[in-house]
Amino acid sequence: TYILSVLQKDGTIVDTRKLLLPGTSRNATSQEDQLAIQGSLNSLQSRDMIKYTTQETLMHELTPEGNDLADNGSHEARVWAAVPSKGQGEPLAPAALQGIIGAASAKVGQGRAMKNGWIGKEGAGFVKLVPQITDQAQIDLRQVRETGTHPKGEKELADLRKRKLAVQKKFLWFTVEKGPEFSISVEKLETDLTVEMLASGAWKDAKFKKYNFEAEGLPTSGGALHPLLKVREEFRNIFFEMGFAEMPTSTYVESAFWNFDALFVPQQHPAREMQDTFYVSDPVASMPPQPDYHAEVTKVHTVGGYGSSGYRAPWSDEETQKLVLRTHTTASSARALKQLADEYKQTGVFRPAKLFSIDRVFRNEAVDATHLAEFHQVEGVVADRGLTLGDLIGFMQTFFKKMGLEHLRFKPAYNPYTEPSLEIFAFHPQLHKWVEIGNSGMFRPEMLEPMGLPKDVRVHGWGLSLERPTMIRYGINNIRTLVGHKVPIDSVEKSAAVRF
Ligand code: PHE
Description:
Family: Belongs to the class-II aminoacyl-tRNA synthetase family. Phe-tRNA synthetase alpha subunit type 2 subfamily.
Structural class: alpha+beta
Enzyme class: ligase
Strand order of the largest sheet: 6-10-11-15-14-13-12
Pfam families: PheRS_DBD3, tRNA-synt_2d
Cofactor: Mg(2+)
EC number: 6.1.1.20
Bound molecules: phenylalanine
């Protein structure tokens, strides 16, 4: 409003450096003052209340050395002050002079003091020739400091620059005139069009603040990986290091055929019941599997084969076509193994394989601190001729060692699709106890041979959850603080990196 009142009175402001700083008796001579004024000018100009032009003047500013001379006197004045008056004591030798005022000052100052007629040589030393001096150099430097320019003009300024006593700086100042919306008071402008304005019609008379397209936006924060993804990346790296290839796992919705039947899970198995498995009601059925393979699987379940007597239990094709949310990634492993078998059938050559997957699975379970209805499985499968249980155990040891678990124990277990099956326990260095870390086994011939894999090909596999090692790593004991809607976003942003 001070600027507005000056404009009201004078019509224009030719030079903002001449403005009196409100509340002081000082003019706005410093660059800082001018930049503060520019802030007000910007805001007034955005309301079209004024128009301003930026002017640029080259100004001189003293360097630290220049300031020292302005404060404490020029080198020549220092020389003059140090030497004795003529006839009063010993003339001062150049070396002694350097000792008193410093070599740099002495060197520059003695010549200038001589030239000014302030001192003279007597024998090998200096004496004062005049009783009093006027240190014009100091006076001039002070003037430069105050006004930004030299009273004697550009030649002197160039000399100061050469002697590194002053540097040239751009100095901004402004000329101001009234704008189309000029008024003596600043109206408060609306920044938002609100529902209330629309409802009352107040928007018609409201004055809105202009958009400032030059304003910088708020800095956006970068994305952050969820802890599960960090641990997943470590597992992937272990697998890649060990020569594994990643299996496709896009089939969240899977047929009961691949999720259960192909894996020799009997149709009466309790895991298939609705309280353990999510069934999909729409669509009602999956596409039927390859007819010849379907026939083989049906046979091995109902009457047996490949040295097995089968389950000899009721069988329903309809059951095989039900759609489920896959309960384990072993369904994807089965698809991958069938593909190996098909390749063998086509080419007559069996290609050994090391495959892995890390993806989501679903179980109709009561949700509690350690269980969710969906989680991730890490699964590895190795297929080659003549693999043994020893290979599986050795493999486990290498694999888990890479994630820092050195001591493993194996406990006999049961899976419909593996025989033998082993639960894997590890002594956990952080938890200081034995914890179950996974499940494994040699896939049954009842699963592999109907696919068409050669008889001497053995496949071992193992699976573990991704959540469990992640919770241990991050010291999380309630899974709901790791996954789901109760997870604070910043805990994800701040979660530390993981290295196994
Ligand atoms: N599918 C098993 C599970 O859900 C893990 C497993 C994979 C077991 C491969 C043996 C072989 O726990």
